[in-house]
Design a protein that fits this description.
Chain lengths: 107, 107
């Protein structure tokens, strides 16, 4: 289970994938495989959280990394890049944006 | 602190605001005010989590609601709509998308 806490100091990647028609489940499976075989072994990885939009057109990875430096290094890992290439045939586009979590409020 | 758990059954709203130049902090303050005065009293509200992009151009609300029906009802609350109107002068656009959280993996 993932915890969101503005005081944890993590960097947050929100990566929005626009998927080709009917490919959301295939992309989800590819992301899970990449996470469990490669990404979870990269230093600085904290969590990955995969979401499928209700209309099936978008998949979002909400990922936490220990720092921006760790994230930047992870992007250079050849095995990671190979997984990304495999996903390109399933998607129209992707839009990775880095954020700081500034505020959380629960009911 | 917010918890992400694919088994919690929540609906997830990821709302990406593109902010006018220099307005990220003002939008963050407006979102916090709306949450603490209005949104946290609406039935079905679970959490709101506000993020500012490292480049200062985007603010994201990662929000959890108990169900889509609760979320749809919340959008009709007049006080909520009034807060949204106040925010329009700070933003270029916003893009609310509803998701299911399907998978979480922590380090």
């Amino acid at each position: 289970m993932t915890q969101l806490n503005p005081r944890d100091g993590h960097i947050v990647l929100i990566n929005t994938f626009k998927v080709k028609s009917g490919k959301a489940e295939a992309l989800l499976a590819a992301l899970i495989k990449a996470t469990e075989t490669t990404v979870n072994k990269i230093p600085g990885f904290v969590s990955a959280n995969f979401h499928v939009s209700l209309n099936g057109k978008q998949v979002v990875n909400y990922a936490q990394w220990r720092s921006k430096a760790d994230f930047d290094r992870a992007m250079q890992v050849p095995e990671f890049q190979a997984h990304m290439k495999e996903m390109f045939e399933l998607i129209e586009s992707f839009d990775p944006v880095l954020y700081e979590l500034r505020y959380s409020h629960g009911a």
